Amino acid sequence: MTKQNKVIKENYGEQSDEFMEFITTDDRKLLESSTTDAINESTTFDEDQVMCDVTRKHVYENLSGKLVSDQESQTVYSKYELSAKVETMILKNEVSTSKLPPPKIVSTLSYENIVRDAVLMKHFIGLTPSQFEVLHNFLDAVCPLESIHYWTGKDCLTKDNARTGPKSEFSSREKLFICLLRLKRGFTVKTLSALLSTPDRKIEPSHVRKIFTTFIQLMYVTFRDMQNFMFPQRAQLSKFLPKVFKTMRKIRCIVDCTEFRVECSRNFARQGNTFSSYKHTNTFKCLIAVTPNGGACFISDLFEGDIDDVRIFEESGIMKHLKPYDLVLADRGFTVRELLNPLQVELKIPAFLKGRKSLSAAEELETRRIAKARIHVERFNERLKQFKIVGRKMPLSIAPLATQMVVVAGCLVNFQDLLCK
């Protein structure tokens, strides 16, 4: 045994003890047998010989009790091959004892996957990855998103009654992504819960609802506080005035009303209040003002669908943003000249026939100019209704958030390319 250990010491040096610790009992017996044979035959064979057949005699007793000699061949290993075998044994032992971590399962619709593709990001939330990052950083600077208080129910209206949302594995970017995903694509909370959950990380429909409501309210309050900055002055607009408005140098905004369909309520009084004689269905209505470039500068709260354009113009609060000598473009339904004259604001609307068979040549030319300029507010309304949750018929369950959703969606439209240059 001492000779065997000596041979191993000479071949492997200080690593021999480390090798012997990792070798199993069966492999150690094979190694000892190979070493014994190598010592017995070392006087005959060269040390660098890789493999050879050795003929030697074995003496044993047969069944009759006589001694019989036999010959057999045995393989003798060199120190290089023996070293390779020991290293292989050690590697096998390490592989068997080490366990690889299970692969991480990620939902196809998760933020981690969608953010890598700008086209998919634009499709699902209406923003590019860089625009999304700008929005997230801006909201986080206004109110740290990791410490906001989450909405918990209808009766929880004050900050004192609110509580921090449940701890989850979702980051603030993922939560903002979930909110914008529902706003843009119109998914229900159950659908989002099923699409975003994985075996390792599940999200309940109630948690999706809390995230959506909280972030919609946060963006709504933030954008409402910026209303004065979103309504630019006439001097700023004149620097970037499109060609179609060159004859209207004092233009400040273009106003129009748009309607959003809503489910019919069981309350008969509410049915009558939300019924629109223009759309012939139950709707919510709001006033939208856009700049000459086509960006929204004012979006009013939502009113019930039976309200007329003059009343919504008066109650929306847009007049406090208008300055003397401003020019406002509108449709024929906005007969609000009496409201704007005290403010010294000019109103341009298409001419009325007033019992005549046709307009004069000058009136017809002016009407065409107004219509050509007003088309941009209609294009903005079309972009706004591409957010499916407000573009489709809104269920009554989210009707209390209708104003917040429309205002936030309108502000997100401003991230898109200019409608008029």
Low-confidence stretches: 38-57, 156-163
Please write the CATH class name of the largest domain: Alpha Beta
Number of domains: 3
Number of helices: 18
Radius of gyration: 40 Å
Average of pLDDT: 81
User: Which class do the helix and strand fractions yield?
Assistant: alpha+beta
Helix content: 40-55%
Name the CATH superfamily classification of the largest domain: Ribonuclease H-like superfamily/Ribonuclease H
Walk me through what this model shows.
The protein is α+β, with helices and mostly antiparallel strands. The chain has three domains: 2-97, no CATH class; 111-225, no CATH class; 232-413, Nucleotidyltransferase, domain 5 (2-Layer Sandwich). The protein is 45% helix and 14% strand. It is built from 18 helices and eleven strands. It has helices at 2-12, 16-22, 25-40, 79-97, 111-114, 118-125, 129-142, 172-185, 189-196, 205-225, 227-230, 234-238, 268-274, 309-315, 337-340, 361-384, 388-391, 402-413, and strands spanning 53-61, 67-75, 149-150, 163-164, 251-261, 275-276, 281-290, 296-299, 303-304, 327-329, 346-348. Strands 5, 6, 7, 8, 9, 10 and 11 form a seven-stranded mixed β-sheet that branches. α1 crosses α3, α8 (172-185) crosses α10 (205-225) and α10 crosses α18. The longest helix is centred in the C-terminal third of the chain and has 24 residues, at 361-384. The radius of gyration is 40 Å and the shape is elongated.
